[in-house]
């Protein structure tokens, strides 16, 4: 589904060039459940941003379903993020001005879905994550776990092929984190590809495989290394 | 129903009441001042064009010097100079000035009407009719200076006579003119005829009525046309109505016009002593006014001697006034535009701080599928909300402001149009300035925006 070939990413920090990713190649197949792990500064978030086309690589190629999407125009990138990817962030990133249901409806409005359809879909998704009774609440009136469940419902609104979760349980107590993990696992079982950044080795073990990064490079022996030899 | 991204912008606007309120006030004041300033200058220019195109400002006015203080010569010559009298014969000066298109005499005039209301009459003991002898034949009604005397019985007979018009008001003003007056002002008759050469040389008292005066005299009981041929009763005698003018925009509609006659004796001569005869020379091209004034000055000097007449050029005076008004209006426009520009820069700054606070959210919106174009539209929405609300408030401010300035400058008409144009123009500029801060998102990636602290 996704193939990265020799991806590198450099940042220019006040005249100093920092290599966030160095020559990374990997492949993620449809239905995979991958965990990206590594210490702070290893390039996990950069990897996540490159995978989600939230940032552009300074070198290498990115193939999505064998299409080279490395240098697509902005409008096309936006369309892919909207239709094919769902994002879950550590700090939830809900819009405080919108109610839970409106937050879920938001990505659908960019897909041009009519109001009634997106509202019905948002109701279904919120019920699915157990928030049928909190739909009109503003995010500030919801607990952290509830906010993350709204974020998950939002990420699913356009039926994405890939869920990109950046430390989805990082801001939650363990019991609430467990609920989120269970939701992600059930999504994966339904065929949704899940790529999750995590610090937590236990959560890493629950993934199908781990992509381990250090200093912007894939660690040799990482389970994905066999797959990346393309 | 607004889409969710628009709801975010609108609710942010609503939730930041103080900041949004200050923004709207700043924009409203700026737009209001600019729209009022623009309205003022446009109205001033329109008004100037309007008055400068009036026939009055294509004319040179010749009158005799009426006050000793205006004279440059020694006082002992005063009597001689006051004897200088202008007559219709002096209009021949026009033959020497090729630029002159029309030439006519114009005197201010007034008719004292006799009304059916006896309260209008002077009581008998106050009367001092010319000749003094007033014995017999009922109570006389007479002008205090001259003219006809009418007894109550005679008045009753006149009221019964349908060929006599007895007005309900006691005075009307107008002009004694020669026939080219009507050519110069491009005045036509709606019914009957205007004053002709025959009327000037004839002996009958005839008058032509302005449209509104005709309607007033006709009252509700008859059509204005029916006044033709009837005699208007005045202390100066019967005035036969020979024509009614089409409406003119120059303030002549409530006045009457009678033939100017040069005779110096009798009733006309009496009045002539109390007013200056004005000779008016209208040129076709206003450019010829100065050269024509020189030619006319030479001619009158050769005829009457030095410093006997005053030649005034109303256009030169009007141009000074117009130029002063335009200058003041331009200054006001400049000040209001400067105020508006300062408001716009402040709006842009505040919008920049709002946009910076939105930066992380913009990154999230992009992650959820917003293209850079969608983001631009979102900020356009915010700028439009500001421009429209500020524009409406500004226009509401500008209307009384502009009205006051126009009253002070004596200019009217067209304000709504120009205020709307000004407000729309200023609203457009506000939108542009409001959009400038969002341009930064056209160059950054979503990840970069999301790294923002807010």
UniProtKB/TrEMBL annotation, chain A:
<dbReference type="InterPro" id="IPR017871">
    <property type="entry name" value="ABC_transporter-like_CS"/>
</dbReference>
<dbReference type="GO" id="GO:0005524">
    <property type="term" value="F:ATP binding"/>
</dbReference>
<dbReference type="InterPro" id="IPR003439">
    <property type="entry name" value="ABC_transporter-like_ATP-bd"/>
</dbReference>
<keyword id="KW-0547">Nucleotide-binding</keyword>
<comment type="similarity">
    <text>Belongs to the ABC transporter superfamily. Macrolide exporter (TC 3.A.1.122) family.</text>
</comment>
<keyword id="KW-0067">ATP-binding</keyword>
<dbReference type="GO" id="GO:0022857">
    <property type="term" value="F:transmembrane transporter activity"/>
</dbReference>
<dbReference type="InterPro" id="IPR017911">
    <property type="entry name" value="MacB-like_ATP-bd"/>
</dbReference>
<dbReference type="Pfam" id="PF00005">
    <property type="entry name" value="ABC_tran"/>
</dbReference>
<dbReference type="GO" id="GO:0098796">
    <property type="term" value="C:membrane protein complex"/>
</dbReference>
<dbReference type="InterPro" id="IPR003593">
    <property type="entry name" value="AAA+_ATPase"/>
</dbReference>
<feature type="domain" description="ABC transporter">
    <location>
        <begin position="2"/>
        <end position="230"/>
    </location>
</feature>
<dbReference type="GO" id="GO:0016887">
    <property type="term" value="F:ATP hydrolysis activity"/>
</dbReference>
<dbReference type="GO" id="GO:0005886">
    <property type="term" value="C:plasma membrane"/>
</dbReference>
<protein>
    <submittedName>
        <fullName>ABC transporter ATP-binding protein</fullName>
    </submittedName>
</protein>
<dbReference type="InterPro" id="IPR015854">
    <property type="entry name" value="ABC_transpr_LolD-like"/>
</dbReference>
<keyword id="KW-0813">Transport</keyword>
<dbReference type="InterPro" id="IPR027417">
    <property type="entry name" value="P-loop_NTPase"/>
</dbReference>
UniProtKB/TrEMBL annotation, chain B:
<dbReference type="InterPro" id="IPR050250">
    <property type="entry name" value="Macrolide_Exporter_MacB"/>
</dbReference>
<dbReference type="Pfam" id="PF12704">
    <property type="entry name" value="MacB_PCD"/>
</dbReference>
<dbReference type="GO" id="GO:0005886">
    <property type="term" value="C:plasma membrane"/>
</dbReference>
<protein>
    <submittedName>
        <fullName>ABC transporter permease</fullName>
    </submittedName>
</protein>
<feature type="transmembrane region" description="Helical">
    <location>
        <begin position="416"/>
        <end position="436"/>
    </location>
</feature>
<dbReference type="InterPro" id="IPR003838">
    <property type="entry name" value="ABC3_permease_C"/>
</dbReference>
<dbReference type="InterPro" id="IPR025857">
    <property type="entry name" value="MacB_PCD"/>
</dbReference>
<feature type="domain" description="ABC3 transporter permease C-terminal">
    <location>
        <begin position="334"/>
        <end position="446"/>
    </location>
</feature>
<feature type="region of interest" description="Disordered">
    <location>
        <begin position="118"/>
        <end position="144"/>
    </location>
</feature>
<dbReference type="GO" id="GO:0022857">
    <property type="term" value="F:transmembrane transporter activity"/>
</dbReference>
<dbReference type="Pfam" id="PF02687">
    <property type="entry name" value="FtsX"/>
</dbReference>
<comment type="similarity">
    <text>Belongs to the ABC-4 integral membrane protein family.</text>
</comment>
<keyword id="KW-0812">Transmembrane</keyword>
<feature type="domain" description="MacB-like periplasmic core">
    <location>
        <begin position="20"/>
        <end position="292"/>
    </location>
</feature>
<feature type="transmembrane region" description="Helical">
    <location>
        <begin position="328"/>
        <end position="351"/>
    </location>
</feature>
<keyword id="KW-1003">Cell membrane</keyword>
<feature type="transmembrane region" description="Helical">
    <location>
        <begin position="21"/>
        <end position="42"/>
    </location>
</feature>
<keyword id="KW-1133">Transmembrane helix</keyword>
<keyword id="KW-0472">Membrane</keyword>
<feature type="transmembrane region" description="Helical">
    <location>
        <begin position="383"/>
        <end position="404"/>
    </location>
</feature>
């Amino acid at each position: 589904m996704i193939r990265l070939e020799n991806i590198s990413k450099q940042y220019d920090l006040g005249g100093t060039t920092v290599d966030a990713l160095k020559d990374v190649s990997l492949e993620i197949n449809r239905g995979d459940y991958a965990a990206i792990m590594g210490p702070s500064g290893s390039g996990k978030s950069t990897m996540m941003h490159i995978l989600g086309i939230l940032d552009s690589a300074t070198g290498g190629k990115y193939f999505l379903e064998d299409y080279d999407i490395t240098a697509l125009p902005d409008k096309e990138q936006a369309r892919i993020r909207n239709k094919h990817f769902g994002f879950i962030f550590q700090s939830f990133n809900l819009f405080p001005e919108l109610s839970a249901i409106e937050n879920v409806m938001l990505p659908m409005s960019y897909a041009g879905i009519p109001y009634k359809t997106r509202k019905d879909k948002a109701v279904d998704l919120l019920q699915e994550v157990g928030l049928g009774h909190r739909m009109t609440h503003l995010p500030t009136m919801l607990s952290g776990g509830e906010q993350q469940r709204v974020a998950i419902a939002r990420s699913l609104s356009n039926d994405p092929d890939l869920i990109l979760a950046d430390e989805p349980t990082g801001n939650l107590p363990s019991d609430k984190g467990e609920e989120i993990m269970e939701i992600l696992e059930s999504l994966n079982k339904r065929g949704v590809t899940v790529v999750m950044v995590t610090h937590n080795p236990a959560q890493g073990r629950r993934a199908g495989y781990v992509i381990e990064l250090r200093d912007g490079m894939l660690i040799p022996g990482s389970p994905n290394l066999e797959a990346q030899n393309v | 129903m607004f889409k969710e991204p628009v709801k975010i912008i609108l609710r942010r606007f609503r939730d930041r009441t103080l900041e949004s309120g200050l923004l709207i006030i700043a924009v409203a004041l700026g737009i209001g001042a600019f729209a009022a300033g623009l309205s003022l200058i446009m109205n001033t220019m329109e008004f100037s064009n309007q008055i400068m195109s009036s026939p009055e400002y294509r004319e040179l006015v010749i009158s005799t010097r009426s006050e000793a203080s205006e004279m440059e010569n020694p006082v002992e010559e005063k009597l001689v100079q006051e004897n200088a009298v202008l007559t219709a014969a002096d209009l021949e000066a026009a033959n020497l000035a090729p630029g002159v298109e029309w030439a006519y005499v114009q005197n201010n005039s007034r008719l004292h009407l006799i009304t059916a209301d006896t309260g209008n009459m002077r009581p008998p003991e106050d009367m001092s009719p010319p000749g003094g002898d007033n014995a017999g034949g009922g109570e006389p009604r007479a002008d205090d200076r001259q003219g006809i005397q009418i007894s109550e019985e005679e008045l009753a007979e006149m009221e019964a006579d349908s060929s006599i018009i007895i007005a309900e008001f006691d005075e009307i003003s107008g002009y004694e003119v020669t026939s080219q007056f009507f050519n110069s002002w491009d005045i036509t008759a709606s019914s009957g005829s205007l004053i002709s050469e025959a009327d000037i040389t004839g002996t009958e008292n005839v008058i032509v009525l302005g449209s509104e005066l005709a309607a007033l005299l006709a009252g509700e009981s008859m059509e204005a046309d029916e006044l033709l041929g009837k005699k208007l009763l005045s202390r100066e005698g019967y005035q036969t109505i020979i024509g009614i003018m089409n409406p003119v925009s120059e303030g002549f509609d409530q006045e009457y016009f009678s033939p100017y006659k040069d005779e110096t004796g009798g009733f006309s001569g009496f009045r002539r002593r109390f007013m200056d005869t004005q000779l008016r020379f209208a040129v076709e091209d206003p450019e010829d006014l100065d050269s024509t004034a020189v030619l006319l000055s030479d001619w009158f000097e050769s005829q009457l001697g030095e410093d006997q007449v005053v030649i005034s050029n109303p256009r030169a005076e009007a141009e000074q006034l117009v130029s002063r008004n335009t200058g003041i209006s331009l200054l006001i426009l400049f000040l209001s535009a400067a105020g508006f520009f300062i408001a716009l820069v402040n709006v842009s700054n505040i919008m920049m701080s709002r946009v910076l606070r939105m930066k992380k959210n913009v990154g999230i919106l992009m992650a959820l599928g917003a293209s850079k174009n969608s983001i631009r539209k979102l900020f356009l929405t915010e700028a439009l909300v500001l421009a429209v609300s500020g524009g409406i408030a500004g226009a509401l401010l500008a209307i009384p402001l502009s009205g006051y300035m126009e009253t002070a400058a004596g200019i009217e008409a067209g304000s709504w149009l120009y205020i709307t144009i000004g407000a729309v123009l200023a609203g457009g500029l506000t939108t542009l300035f409001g959009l400038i801060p969002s341009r930064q998102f056209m160059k950054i990636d979503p990840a970069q925006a999301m790294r923002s602290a807010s």
